[in-house]
UniProtKB/TrEMBL annotation:
The lineage of its organism: Eukaryota, Metazoa, Chordata, Craniata, Vertebrata. It comes from the Eukaryota. Residues 74-84 have a biased composition (Basic and acidic residues). This is Fibronectin type III and SPRY domain-containing protein 2. Residues 94-120 have a biased composition (Polar residues). It comes from Manacus vitellinus (golden-collared manakin). Gene3D superfamilies: 2.60.120.920, Classic Zinc Finger, Immunoglobulins. Pfam families: fn3, SPRY. Residues 552-751 form the B30.2/SPRY domain. Residues 380-476, 477-570 form the Fibronectin type-III domain. Keywords: Coiled coil.
Length: 754
């Protein structure tokens, strides 16, 4: 709001020109009615104010606030402020009433200011001219009008003040209601009511705490409701399943009842037919017996009649002589005697009564009793073998029963699968289990077994399932340590399977060893190797443990025994299959010796791959590109040959005498030690003054060189320049009794660089 000095002045009219013009248009009658109403409202407001003061005094006395005068003054001051405060405009009508009230206050203030000015006799008033007097007179007329309007507006202002006081009191009461929460009555109350009201002895708590507690309780209840909803949904789902199961069981029971009923009817019909047939057979027998007896009786009756007639005729004869003659010679007399001698059976051959036949209903009763019994289960379904679910000696077999039949247990049968013709001779094994899985132990590695399973209950055993073939994991492979070849950056590892049956693949595991750590941390794994050898790329000057595993559908085998590989230089072994019969390999595997040379071409056994003429042996193939270095220790009085040769070098010739071998030869002549570097039987003329006792051999595939060195003095002896079309074998030979020692795994010396 604007400052009160602006109301009722000329500046105020400049600020509110529209309100002034609107109020000038109002009639004097309306103004009088408003003044009367305002006077009544002022009186009413005064009565309200009196009642409020009285109520405050009573409250102060009741709550002990009369001793604290400051609290009382604050209450009274709050009332005065509330009465003087202008309520905010809530509607358009309330806004217009507020404007009228402001106008009345401004006119009253202007009138008071003019009276005080006249009483004090302010200077400058006598010097005003007539125009100013006229203006003042106009202002007084207008002020009188505004004063009359102010009566009505003042009454309206008092009304709004009383309304504001009551509304704020209600708001304060509402705010006080939300202070605390009565736990006994479960309702929010004022803190004042806890101290002096009916909730004095009740247990209360702070409203925020009560709110949090109630929210937490509501949250727990919601969680419980959600759990109950989930449980009810599960129950409903289970009921649906039970409903479907009931329908299915009803269908099965109905079908079972129908089958048993048909079986019982069939049994009854069969027994009826059997009894009827037996009764008919008995009837036929009786009738035949009676018929035969009837025929026999008829024949006897005819004979009796005939004899009776003859005898009667004889009896009527009157002539005595004739009677006697006929009687003696009468033929019927003989027949009569014979007939009378016969015993006539007058009893019935059979009785007319039939044997009482009773149908045996025991089988029918058994069938009827089995209607309510549990039917025999259906055949289970055995699962195919899961990968990596077997070991070398055990298998885990799983199956399922895709029906709701009652099952008390299972019968698992298995036997080894044989490729032989008489596979039926394999022994079958049977196990009784309760679960739908079983682990079978004490089996053979890498062996196929055939499994089938049947379900059991009180009614019997189900048909067997389809047969499934499982296979155990392989045995660990066996690494051929004497066939391993390596160099500074690679190794060729060979092994053999520990099983008779083939495996799917192999896995090679590398363990890099250090001085600080010798654990089994796998550095690298090579998987899916189809054959029993692999070429592995390694790092120079390192040590590795290498193991091999075999793989099949059943799983992986255990690790093989590890082998240690050094990548400090080229390593190879001597191939015993190529050794001459007179050549011996000592226990270290790298020393060869020959004790005798008597007729090396005599009656010695000849092997397919061994040398027959030259007392020689080949080392393992060196299948790695690059440079390879090894040394041979010799004695000065030993004649020998050493170098390299192809795999197909002739076994019946000498090393160096053909185009498939390159070698250095040492022979002793009466005058000196002679050294030859032979290839295709040819050698250059080279004289070596210092006989080497340690010969270094450098094979360089990339530069197509084969170099020989005196390793004792780092002296280069000779180099063959030849393009090796294939990988070569180291070769060694003795021409006199002696010993050669081969050293491998040596780092290539720097002085070998040409």
């Amino acid at each position: 709001f604007y400052h009160m000095d602006l109301y009722g002045s000329k500046e105020r009219f400049d600020i509110f020109p529209e309100e002034l013009s609107g109020r000038e248009d109002r009639s004097l009658g309306d103004t009088r009615r408003e003044s009367v109403l305002s006077s009544e409202k002022v009186q009413c407001s005064q009565e309200i104010g009196y009642d409020m003061e009285k109520e405050v005094a009573e409250l102060a006395k009741m709550y002990g606030l009369d001793e604290d005068k400051e609290k009382e003054l604050e209450l009274l001051g709050g009332r005065v402020e509330m009465e003087s405060r202008w309520p905010p405009a809530r509607t358009k009508k309330a806004g217009s009433q507020g404007s009228t009230n402001n106008a009345s206050k401004s006119s009253t203030s202007v009138k008071d200011q003019s009276q005080s000015t006249k009483q004090q006799g302010l200077p400058g008033e006598a010097s005003q001219d007539e125009d100013q007097s006229k203006t003042r007179a106009d202002d007084e007329v207008e002020s009188n009008i505004w004063s009359r309007e102010g009566l009505s507006s003042g009454g309206m202002s008092d009304e709004w003040n009383s309304q504001a006081v009551s509304e704020e009191q209600e708001e304060e009461e509402e705010e006080e209601v939300a202070n605390v929460f009565c736990s006994t009555c479960k309702i929010p109350i004022r803190a004042f009511d806890k101290l002096f009201g009916e909730h004095k002895d009740h247990e209360v708590t702070q409203l925020p705490n009560a709110l949090e507690s109630e929210k937490e309780e509501i949250h727990k209840n919601m969680c419980k409701l959600e759990e109950q909803i989930a449980q009810m949904e599960n129950v409903a789902s289970h009921l649906e399943e039970i409903f479907l199961t009931v329908e299915e069981n009803f269908g099965r029971q109905e079908q079972n009842f129908e089958v048993h009923y048909n079986d019982a009817v069939q049994v009854l019909a069969q027994k009826y037919e059997e009894q009827l047939e037996a009764l008919g057979e008995e009837k036929r027998q009786k009738l035949e017996a009676l018929y035969e007896q009837l025929v026999s009786s008829g024949k006897l009756l005819d004979t009796c009649k005939e004899l009776t007639d003859k005898t009667h005729e004889l009896f009527l004869e009157n002539d005595k002589a004739e009677f006697m003659k006929k009687y003696i010679f009468f033929p019927c007399n003989y027949r009569l005697e014979e007939f009378l001698k016969q015993e006539v059976n007058l009893e019935l051959s059979t009785l007319p009564d039939f044997e009482e036949r009773v149908i045996d209903f025991s089988e029918v009763e058994q069938l009827m009793n089995s209607i309510n019994a549990i039917p025999a289960p259906c055949a289970p379904v055995i699962n195919p073998q899961a990968p990596n679910a077997a070991t070398g000696t055990s298998l885990r077999v799983c199956w399922g029963l895709f029906s709701d039949d009652t099952v008390e247990g299972y019968q698992l049968c298995y036997k080894p699968v044989s490729n032989e013709r008489h596979s039926g001779e394999q022994a079958e094994h049977t196990l009784k289990v309760k679960e739908t899985y079983c682990t079978i132990t004490n089996l053979l590695p890498n062996t196929q077994y055939e499994f089938w399973v049947s379900a059991l209950n009180a009614s019997g055993i189900s048909p067997p399932s389809e047969r499934a073939v499982y296979v155990t994991a392989p045995s660990p492979p066996i690494i051929k340590s004497k066939k391993i070849r390596s160099c500074e950056n690679a190794a060729l590892v060979c092994w053999e399977s520990g099983d008779i049956n083939p495996v799917d693949s192999y896995t090679v595991e590398l363990y890099k060893l250090t001085d600080e750590q010798n654990d089994d941390t796998i550095t690298e794994s090579i998987v899916g190797i189809p054959n029993c050898e692999v070429l592995i790329h390694l790092q120079p000057t390192q040590r590795y443990h290498i193991c091999v595993r075999a793989q099949n559908l059943g799983g992986s085998s255990e690790r093989s025994e590890p082998v240690l590989i050094h990548t400090t230089g080229t390593c190879f072994y001597l191939n015993e299959d190529t050794a001459h019969p007179l050549l011996a390999i000592l226990d270290d595997g790298f020393t060869i010796s020959c004790d005798e040379l008597e007729n090396p071409e005599c009656d010695l056994p000849v092997y397919d791959n061994s040398f027959t003429r030259c007392i020689a042996i080949l080392g393992s193939l060196i299948p790695f590109p690059g440079k390879h270095y090894w040394e041979v220790e010799v004695e000065e009085d030993t004649e020998y040959r050493t170098g390299v040769a192809f795999e197909n070098t002739p076994r019946h010739g000498h090393l160096g005498a053909n185009n498939s071998s390159w070698c250095m030869r040492h022979i002793i002549t009466p005058s000196r030690h002679k050294y030859e570097f032979l290839h295709s039987g040819m050698t250059p003329d080279i004289r070596i003054t210092i006989p080497p006792t340690r010969i270094g051999i450098l094979l360089d595939y990339e530069n197509c060189r084969l170099s020989f060195f005196n390793a004792d003095i780092a002296q280069h002896l000779y180099t063959f320049n030849s393009r090796f079309q294939h990988y070569v074998h180291p070769c060694f030979a003795l021409e006199t009794p002696g010993i050669l020692r081969i050293r491998t795994g040596i780092t290539t010396p720097p002085w070998t660089a040409l």
